[in-house]
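hiii, so i know i said id send this last week but things got crazy w the move. better late than never?? heres the sequnce for the chain we talked about at the cafe, plus the structure i predicted for it. fair warning i was half asleep when i ran it
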Amino acid sequence: MRHLKRFYYIFFLLALLTLPAVSSAVIDIGDIGLGETGNAAGFQETDVAVVVGKIIQTALSLLGIIVLIFLVYGGFLWMMSGGNEQTVKKAKDIILNAAIGLIIVLAAYAITNFIVVNIYEAV
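okay and structure toks below
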């Protein structure tokens, strides 16, 4: 139970750290003069497709970090198993599942990148 609680804390911290990257896009703010102020400050107006693409890429980056954590955890279990076959099997399963997760995350990133680039070029 403690490990799950730590995992949630780490996930929340990483989500909190990536929040500025996700919220950096300026969406249509109307005719109240904030557009000129934002442009003078160096912010640019972006399309919805770009914002959604940034959100998806940030989420996939977080998933990649989680996969890396599982790979390190599986390697640590294997190194600390002391020859115990059950622990070695558990570590191998964790590493195998993390590698499969990495393949899924990379495929999702490639598909997302392809779709966002084509939508951006079409708009």
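btw Residues 85-122 form the longest helix (38 residues). thought thatd interest u
miss u guys!!
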